[in-house]
Design a protein that fits this description.
single chain, 389 residues, alpha/beta, six-stranded mixed sheet, 17 helices, 39% helix
């Protein structure tokens, strides 16, 4: 058995790594996972770069930022597969909650435009929004959503807060709102410090959230371990997407060694049945978090280009060059090579028009067909890397 040390941040979307270890998917590949719980995303990046861990759960835009030179000088890192889509929630502090309710907002939890316009009317000045890292899906979701609802860049401050500290940041008054992965939004609700306004999937139906990231040198010189790791994680994701398994997954994730929270909190995010306020209001969000189904784990190069096209202009970089560099770090070639033997459905292309699917669609695959998940944005936005300027 070969031991691999894997870094993760305590969130429900660390589940594929934890389940692969706990249920024996890693052992089936001749691997032992030594899981290292980390406190912040920069720690995951820096430990991977220093060779202190072999692979990391990482926010999808982080390897994009590294490819653009927006981080410490480290060896090349590559995203080899997605670990999850969705799993985020937008929340507001109690003062904003009361202001929104007094103005008639119903907290229906599904209409991103209505929620954003209500928030614009309720915030007379700048809005301080907590996000887990500057280069995060949460950051891009918030920017896109607020801009489409009338907020100018000068109207918002994005504040970096590690996920486990988000509730404390609201309690201290450091932020007015936040976007974070579960279970930390639910923790803030249970502490009476926030109310949930939207799931991330109301803004973007399939926001890629976390990826499995390796040093390029590891992936290229240790193909056996790389393939075994990817197959174990892929099988864990497939197991997790069975609704009948989500309760068991919540029990495992909530253990002291992992999230160290009541199982009920972990189960909310896994099932998409969320308590959104101190009033006990419940909302059901089908597909709130997806690990594998609908091609969710395939690392589309067009998503690398999309994130690069957003990040580059804010840092004075050429978007075209940035997109090309970023796409080279999303390794669809390794995904095909290592997951073909596992029977994973493989799309015929490595990039597509992002945001184009208003509903699930059957498409051609290497073997027959496959279903791709709906990925539409609430405002009709789409992105074609072939025509992006």
């Amino acid at each position: 058995m070969i031991t691999l040390r894997l870094g993760y941040v305590p969130l429900i979307d660390a589940a594929p790594l934890i389940i692969a270890h706990e249920l024996g998917f890693a052992a089936e590949e001749g691997l032992v996972f030594d899981l290292a719980r980390l406190g912040a995303w920069a720690q995951a990046r820096d430990m991977l770069g220093a060779g202190l861990i072999d692979a990391a759960q990482m926010l999808v835009p982080m390897p994009v930022a590294q490819a653009l030179g927006l981080g410490p000088i480290l060896p090349a890192i590559d995203l080899v597969m997605f670990l999850s889509h969705g799993g985020q929630a937008v929340a507001v502090n109690r003062a904003l909650e009361h202001r929104l309710r007094d103005a008639g907002h119903d907290f229906a939890f599904g209409n991103a435009r209505a929620a954003g316009m209500a928030l614009r009317r309720a915030v007379p000045g700048r809005l301080r929004v907590g996000v887990p890292f500057p280069f995060s899906t949460q950051s891009e979701l918030v920017r896109h959503w607020l801009a489409a609802c009338g907020f100018a860049p000068a109207d918002m401050d994005l504040v970096t807060v590690p996920p486990p500290m988000m509730a404390d940041a609201v309690a201290r008054g450091d932020v007015d709102a936040f976007c974070v992965g579960e279970p930390w939004a639910s923790v803030a609700v249970d502490r009476g410090q926030a109310a949930l306004l939207l799931p991330g999937t109301a803004i973007w139906a399939a926001p890629p959230e976390k990826g499995l990231v390796l040093l390029r040198s590891f992936a290229e010189t240790r193909p056996g371990e790389t393939g075994g790791l990817m197959r174990a994680v892929w099988r864990a994701g497939r197991w997790l997407d069975d609704p009948d398994h989500r309760g068991t997954a919540a029990e495992i994730l909530s253990r002291p060694a992992y999230l160290d929270l009541p199982p009920e909190l972990a189960e909310r995010g896994l099932t998409g049945r969320l308590t959104i306020s101190g009033r006990g209001e419940m909302r059901d969000v089908p597909g709130f978090v997806v690990f594998n189904a609908g091609g969710a784990s395939f690392p589309w190069k067009s998503l690398a280009a999309l994130f690069a096209s957003c990040i580059a202009p804010r840092h004075g970089l050429d978007p075209q060059a940035a997109m090309a560099r970023a796409m080279s770090h999303f390794r669809t070639d390794l995904y095909r090579r290592h997951l073909r033997p596992a029977g994973a459905p493989l799309p015929g292309a490595s990039q597509r028009v992002e945001g184009a699917l208003a509903q699930d669609r059957s498409v051609a695959a290497e073997r027959g067909g496959m279903i791709l998940r709906a990925d539409a944005f609430f405002d009709g936005f789409s992105f074609d890397p072939a025509s992006a300027n």
